[in-house]
Amino acid sequence: MSEEASYKDKKVITIGVVSELTGLTERQIRYYEERKLIFPERADKGNRKYSFNDIERLIEIANKREEGVRTYDIRQEMIKKNKELDQKVRKNMLKGQINSRFGIQKDR
């Protein structure tokens, strides 16, 4: 059985609505996409579609930009967080495999 994405992950919101919700211009939103800070999906006709998580990320980006943080630095921070998350996931997976192999039950 496959897991369904959370409503916050579903890419269903148009760039116009995102612009209204965030206060950013459509040009700014596209720029952040060019800088690889957000990753909208494309609909059949090429229209960008965003999720609620994308909106939250755009607000965080806008706040950091107001503080003077460069987009390059924001991107580097994102990369670092993703690497840390990947390492944590791998560590938990390995721990689960070891526990499974040796019949260790997790305390409840």
TrEMBL record:
<keyword id="KW-0804">Transcription</keyword>
<dbReference type="InterPro" id="IPR009061">
    <property type="entry name" value="DNA-bd_dom_put_sf"/>
</dbReference>
<keyword id="KW-0678">Repressor</keyword>
<dbReference type="InterPro" id="IPR047057">
    <property type="entry name" value="MerR_fam"/>
</dbReference>
<dbReference type="Pfam" id="PF13411">
    <property type="entry name" value="MerR_1"/>
</dbReference>
<keyword id="KW-0805">Transcription regulation</keyword>
<keyword id="KW-0238">DNA-binding</keyword>
<protein>
    <submittedName>
        <fullName>MerR family transcriptional regulator</fullName>
    </submittedName>
</protein>
<dbReference type="InterPro" id="IPR000551">
    <property type="entry name" value="MerR-type_HTH_dom"/>
</dbReference>
<feature type="domain" description="HTH merR-type">
    <location>
        <begin position="12"/>
        <end position="80"/>
    </location>
</feature>
